[in-house]
């Protein structure tokens, strides 16, 4: 019998999972996969711990019309293929923990009800995150389930970083800067502590640049401020999300263009960012490969905004000891890294052109006033670690 932790990352159009075998204090990935294209072009893909393909199955749209159908297909696949593996707990990525949850939490009915109250704060994600928790609680009420939040890492923010310049009662009602990508920042900060402890305890900016993108300022490994705020729309532009925007534009679209709030929401989440700016693609690879001026503009806009955000966060930190790139773009696009650091050269950051793109983690040239790193993120492993730690704490509490 082998004990494992299952990690679930469920969204509205995809559901991903990763299974980790518990090996003493370590967690070894043994299966990973998921269902994507729910309701349009559904497919189920699973690989084993070494990356070998175990399943690659396409479905008709009608066979997997919604997230709930996808969960059942996935659960059936897992039940048939788990062999001698025993899942001892399930860790879930939950986007919103509101102002309450500064730590991962074991889910019971009261917690689930509380998490449902945050649905209006993240309508696109929260519902999809909670759905599999509910289904699993019905099927396997004995199985411990743990919610790990994208917001928790930012809950220790000073008040200055948590507020909007709006009437005070709105803050009390929950209109505040929550911040996201916390599991990624926590993982990367932990890796930095292992590989460069001398800077990890200092002033660090991490740029999580994926299809969603944000930056975080950390002092002594703790989040001080971040660019996403009340929703995952704020901050730097993203694949299809607009990033920071004059709120007057939203008023204009509703009042003078006659758009409904839902139409505006759709535009800001799905038609803006790199896609909106270029009119071509939300994918940085396609934009870098294009010779169209709109593509060049979108890339230049993205790099400029990321550099500006880094500079603003350095103000919060009172300086900068290290700048870290992570996530799809941050890890894989040397040209984007080059341009962002070039925009920060006034602050004394110098990138080594030899190191950038060579596969090494440390990218600053000698004489750079801050270290520059690229560190791959692993949000699923962070969730698995949190889940294991919480189980251990509960077990030692029960023994005490
Ligand atoms: P998420 O997990 O938020 O879906 P990722 O962190 O996987 O996103 O990042 C996805 C994005 O990373 C893609 O949209 C693409 O623009 C970018 N990306 C991935 N590989 C490369 C690459 N080799 N060069 C440039 N951009 C890349």
From TrEMBL:
Active site: 150 (proton donor/acceptor)
Enzyme class: transferase
Swiss-Prot/TrEMBL keywords: ATP-binding, Cytoplasm, Kinase, Magnesium, Metal-binding, Nucleotide-binding, Transferase
GO terms under cellular component: cytosol
Sites marked Transition state stabilizer: 181, 241
Gene3D superfamilies: 3.30.420.40
Pfam families in alphabetical order: Acetate_kinase
GO terms assigned for molecular function: acetate kinase activity; ATP binding; magnesium ion binding
InterPro entries: Ac/propionate_kinase, Aliphatic_acid_kin_short-chain, Aliphatic_acid_kinase_CS, ATPase_NBD
Pathway: Metabolic intermediate biosynthesis; acetyl-CoA biosynthesis; acetyl-CoA from acetate: step 1/2
Subcellular localization: Cytoplasm
Main location: cytoplasm
Cofactor: Mg(2+); Mn(2+)
Cofactor binding mode and count: Mg(2+). Can also accept Mn(2+).
List of residues binding ATP: 16, 208-212, 283-285, 328-332
Keyword Signal in record: no
EC annotation from Swiss-Prot or TrEMBL: 2.7.2.1
Family label: Belongs to the acetokinase family.
Descriptive protein name: Acetate kinase
Organism: Methylorubrum extorquens DSM 13060
Organism taxonomic ancestry: Bacteria, Pseudomonadati, Pseudomonadota, Alphaproteobacteria, Hyphomicrobiales
């Amino acid at each position: 019998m082998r004990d494992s932790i299952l990690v679930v990352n469920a969204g509205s159009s995809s559901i991903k999972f990763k299974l980790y075998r518990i090996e003493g204090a370590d967690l070894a990935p043994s299966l990973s996969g998921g269902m994507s294209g729910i309701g349009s072009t559904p497919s189920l893909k699973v690989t084993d711990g070494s990356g070998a393909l175990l399943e690659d199955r396409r479905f008709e749209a009608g066979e997997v019309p919604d997230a709930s159908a996808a969960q059942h297909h996935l659960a059936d696949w897992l039940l048939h293929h788990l062999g001698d593996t025993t899942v001892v707990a399930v860790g879930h990525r939950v986007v919103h923990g509101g102002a309450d949850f500064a730590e991962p939490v074991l889910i019971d009915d009261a917690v689930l009800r509380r998490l449902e109250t945050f649905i209006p704060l993240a309508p696109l994600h929260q519902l999809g995150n909670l759905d599999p928790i509910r289904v699993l609680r019905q099927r396997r009420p004995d199985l411990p389930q743990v919610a790990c939040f994208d917001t928790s890492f930012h809950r220790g923010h000073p008040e200055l970083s948590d507020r909007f310049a709006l009437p005070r009662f709105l803050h009390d009602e929950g209109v505040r800067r929550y911040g996201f990508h916390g599991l990624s920042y926590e993982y990367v900060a932990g890796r930095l502590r292992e590989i460069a402890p001398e800077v990890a305890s200092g002033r660090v900016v991490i740029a999580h640049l994926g299809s969603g993108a944000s930056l975080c300022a950390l002092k002594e490994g703790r989040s001080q401020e971040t660019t996403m705020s009340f929703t995952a729309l704020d901050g730097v532009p993203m694949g299809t999300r607009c990033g920071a925007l004059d709120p007057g534009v939203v008023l204009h679209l509703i009042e003078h263009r006659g758009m409904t709030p839902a139409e505006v929401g759709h535009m800001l989440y799905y038609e803006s960012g790199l896609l909106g700016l270029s009119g071509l693609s939300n994918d940085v690879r396609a934009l870098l490969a294009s010779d169209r001026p709109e593509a060049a503009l979108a890339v230049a806009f993205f790099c400029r905004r990321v550099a500006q955000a880094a500079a603003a966060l350095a103000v919060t930190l009172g300086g900068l000891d290290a700048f870290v790139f992570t996530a799809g773009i941050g890890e894989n696009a040397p040209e984007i890294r080059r341009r962002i650091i070039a925009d920060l050269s006034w602050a004394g950051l110098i990138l080594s052109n030899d190191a950038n793109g060579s596969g090494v983690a440390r990218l600053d040239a000698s004489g750079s006033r801050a270290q520059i790193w690229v560190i791959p993120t692993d949000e699923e492993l962070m969730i698995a670690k949190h889940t294991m730690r919480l189980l251990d704490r509960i077990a030692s509490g029960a023994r005490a």
